[in-house]
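Same chain as my last thread, 318 residues:
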Amino acid sequence: MLSLKDFREKQILLIQNELGVENKIRFENDNVVFEKDGKVANRLSCFKILAIFIIGDTSITSVLMRNCLKYGIALFMLKNNFELYASIGCGAEGNYLLRKKQYQNLDEFDLSKRVVANKILNQFRLLKLAKMINKQKFENSGAEATKKVKAAKDNQKLLGIEGNYTKNFFQTYFNELNWRRRMPRTKYDPYNVLMDMGYTFLFNYIETLLKLYGFDVYKGFYHKLFFQRKSLVCDLMEPFRCIIDKQLLKSFRLRQIDNKDFKIISKRYALSYDKSQKYALIFLEALVSNKEKMFSYIKDFYKCVIKDEKDYPVFKIS
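reply #2:
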């Protein structure tokens, strides 16, 4: 199993292909090589790569795919709008004991309450870090939210609590952005476009970590079983959404977001192709700066599941 010491040396490789250029990714002497028009543009050792995100059309070889599996590298294929359409896993699918416990031993409602409470508390932490609430307000609001979550009688009630707190959080935290509402996948405004992008990378990264341990990513506890939905990834990304939220506000304040980078197509906002890498790197850097905490969280979650323990991990944004 991958240790934290080894994980610290791992890198995420982002490759965005260019229009009008012949892009190719291949394997050579324990290295992943990225070529543009037959010339080497980048080269990185397989031993240092955790995941490769390929955006846009490219050519890949069967040798590369085989070696990604051999070296435990997750390969994600994304469209130009960052929609994931294919992936090659890096998981320990043979961990049948873990999967048996996933299906038989988990107290699903208790776990659901834990991730929802963790998510809401991180939202209040962001408000406190941004000086939108003081310490006393943070403690009182956090205690009230935790009490409500613990008192929830069923999943529908829990969903309602999460939805209300998240709606109020967005309105307060993103007030400077003239925030209207969260509209997932509808590309309602530039900020929803960027949030979708950040959440997409977060989702793929959490999936990568879960597969390192052999989890069945389709078997969740808060998000129920649904055809082709990776419910466990949806569950465990909840406490980490705050990383993307924080980066979005930070980028706005640093004037990194330029409305001229966006265009409107069929009443939907979209990033110009040549500007998308700029924002992709911003969100990936935010994830990389938290990668050790995220790895430790998934590792501790694995230990709790495999040992039938209830001391589940908590992520605190800082």
